[in-house]
Structure formats: C-alpha cells, structure tokens
Amino acid sequence: MVSEAPSAHPNRETSRQKDFYRIEWAAFLLYKYLYVMIKPGQMYTFLMLSLGLLLSCGAVKQTPGTQTDEQLLTDVKILSSDSYEGRKTGTKGAEMARAYLTGRFKSIGLDSFPQLQGYEQPFSFKTGEKTIEGKNMIGLIAGEKKQVIVISAHYDHIGIIRGQVYNGADDNASGVAALLEIAAYFKKHKPMHTLVFAAFDAEEMGLQGAKAFVANPPVPIQLITLNINMDMISRSDKNELYACGTAKNPFLKKYFHTSVPTPKVILGHDDPKTGRDDWTNQSDHSAFNDKNIPFIYFGVEDHEDYHKATDDYQNIDEAFFIGATKSILEIIDNIDRKRDSQQLIHDNQRMKKQ
Ligand SMILES: [Zn+2]
Predict the structure, then answer these.
(1) How much is the pLDDT for 353?
(2) C-alpha of residue 86 to centroid of ligand 1, in Å
(3) CA–CA separation, 259 vs 213, rounded Å?
(4) What is the end-to-end Cα distance of the chain in Å, rounded?
(5) What is the pLDDT of residue 130?
(6) Contact predicate 327/260, CB 8 Å
(7) What pLDDT score does 13 carry?
(8) Which domains does the chain have, with CATH numbers?
(9) What pLDDT shows up at residue 14?
(10) DSSP per-residue codes, 204-217
C-alpha cells in the first residue's frame, strides 16, 4: 500500500476535489483504452455485459451452501426433538423453544423492539374457563424503507398426548427453521422493506398468537404491506409446494419466479368457492387477511403424519425442504426489490441477443 505523506494543514475540500479528478481521469483512460482495444461493434456488447453483470448482482446470492443447509436442518432437528415435548403453548417445551429462538435470533443479529421483553411479545386468551399465556417471538431487520413485510411461522405444536410426544417436525419446526434462514440471508443483504420476523405461539389453539400480534402490532399496522406465512413446508409426495393468497391479490403473481428447479411452486388453495380446499383461514396469515393485509401462505397438502406422533424429523424430505426454503427466499427477495417476471424476461432477452 502506498500512502501519501500527510500535509501539515490538509484542506479537505481540495483533497476531495483532487480525488474526484483522479477518479474521473482514471475513468477517461479506461474508456479510451477500451475504445481502442475493442472494435466499435463490440463496444455495445461490452457495455451490455457489464450492465448484465451489475443487474445480476441484485439476485439472491446465497449459493445452495452446505453450511446454510446444515443449519436449516439442524434447526428442525432440535426444535422437533423429544426434549421439546411437542412445544405446546404454556408448557416447558414451549419455553425451551423460546430459549432456543432467542439464541438463534441473537446469533443472526436480529434487532428487538424496545417495547417488547427482549424478543418476547406476551399475550393471553381464554379457552372455556381457563386463561392461557402465550408468547410470540419477534425480531427485526430495518430496511431502506419503513414499509414492513411480516415473515411468520408458528413455533407451537400440540404437546404430549396419552404419553406420546407430538414433535411437529413438519408442523411447524420446518417453517420456523426457514424463517431463521431467511432472516440470516437478509441480515447479510440489507432489504428494501423493513422485515419483521414473527415466530407465533398458540396457532394450534386458534391462531391466537397471530391475532394478538395484529391486535397489538409492534409497528403501526398501516405500515404492514404484506404477510408471508410458512406452515408445513418440508415434505410432499407429489413434490408440490402451494402458495395461497394470490387469488385475492393477483398483483403478487408476477413475483413467482425462482432459479430453484424443485419443488414445484403452485398458486392455489385460495378460491373461496372450494370450501375446505381454500386455505385462507387455515393458519396465521388469516389474522392478517382479516385486517385486509395481503398475504402469501406457503404450505403443503396434509400428509399421513399430519397431527400425528409420527410427524418426526426422519419423515421430512430434506431435499424438498431445502428447495422449498430457497424458493420462498427468492420470491421474498423478488417482492422486496420489486423484481417482477416481466423485468426478468426483459433482462434475459437482452442477454440472449448478444
Ligand atoms: Zn401448523
């Protein structure tokens, strides 16, 4: 490294100006060099290539790295292990899940809201005569804009029934693990929107955590522009991941393109005419929909281990789960940066012409 001797009375303005002239001069020389070295016909190609390179820098840069995949699987494995006792709201298992999530939120570097207790948002609700206490886990990454996307997944499950632990690996340790991977990505790649990460409690008791969140959100509710909810995303015999919610908000359809070849992401399960096949009220996104906040819910169709003691880690499909998480991440990134498929086709055609 070459450093210039500091002058006794540095004039900041002058030295800044000098730097500017130096950069301008270097740019001019580079341009002249390229002009001489590259035939005029190729200059356009060169410029377009550079532009393409610049544009591609905006794409999700998380290589299907083994480290991220390992972490994703580890999170599911731990949260769905017997020691978490099925994470039923109000139990020791749920408290252990919160302790684990606090550690993960901290290590990722998520901020917390000053009005909450760490990452915890306590709430209570009644079932019959009983009052039950629940706690949502909420973290934050501030973006360039104050408009908010809430990325959610419930961490509770149904506990121990007749001596059997219901581990809820797919339902919904999978969604929570994906939430953590997405949070880690955006911590490294600053988002445009402010992202609120919400691991909800008491979904299995009637979406209570999500209802408490929208009743008392940590940000003004009018700033919440979208909810992305994940609930059961780690297995499908048909290799299908559904995205529900674009029927009501078709403007979201254009963001559904990913570089991940599998699983198939299918828009659907959101036609009110189809009765139980309409999943609009099936998970936490329903609470956002009730407040007229657009949502996308990612999930799979019910499988043989759904709400059974056999919803265990060994029954999830690791490849499906890794692919599903990456697809969801890319779609969120598209929405966050408003990269629609029209823009992508345009970029691709331009690259092909060269
Ligand atoms: Zn669930």
Answers:
(1) 67
(2) 12
(3) 33
(4) 39
(5) 93
(6) yes
(7) 37
(8) 66-336 (3.40.630.10)
(9) 39
(10) TTTSHHHHHHHHS-
Q: Give the chain's residues under pLDDT 50.
A: 1-26, 28-29, 31-41, 43-58, 63-64
CA of 130 relative to ligand 1 center, distance in Å: 23
Tell me phi and psi for residue 304, to 5 degrees: -65, -20
pTM of the model: 0.81
Instruction: Say what the pLDDT of residue 56 is.
Output: 41
* Residue 154 Cα to ligand 1 middle (Å): 7
Residue 198 Cα, ligand 1 centroid: separation in angstroms? 14
| Beta-ladder partners of 228 | 151, 296
CA of 141 to the centre of ligand 1 (A): 25
CA 202 – ligand 1 centroid, Å: 10
- The CA 96 to ligand 1 mean position distance, Å, reads 18
Average pLDDT along the chain = 86
User: How far is the centre of ligand 1, averaged over its atoms, from the C-alpha of 311 (Å)?
Assistant: 11
Q: Which residue's structure tokens are 């979406």?
A: 207
Distance 258 CA to ligand 1 centre (A): 25
pLDDT at 354: 60
CA 123 to centroid of ligand 1, rounded, Å: 19
Report d(CA 167, CA 292) in Å as an integer: 33
Helix/strand/coil (H/E/C) assignment for every residue in 307-335:
CCCCCCHHHCCHHHHHHHHHHHHHHHHHH
Bridge partners (DSSP) of residue 328 are: none
- Using the mean position of ligand 1's atoms as its centre, give its distance from the Cα of residue 314 in Å: 18
What are 7-50's pLDDT values in tens digits? 333 333 334 444 444 444 445 445 444 444 444 445 444 444 44
Q: Which two tokens stand for residue 199?
A: 């691991």
C-alpha of residue 121 to centroid of ligand 1, in Å: 20
Q: Please report the pLDDT score of residue 195 as a whole number.
A: 98
CA 172 to centroid of ligand 1, rounded, Å:
5
Q: For residue 346, what pLDDT is reported?
A: 80
DSSP state for residue 93 in the 8-state scheme? H
Rg (CA), the chain: 24
Cα of 140 to ligand 1 centre, how many Å?
Answer: 23
- State the distance from the centre of ligand 1 to the C-alpha of 231, rounded, in angstroms: 5
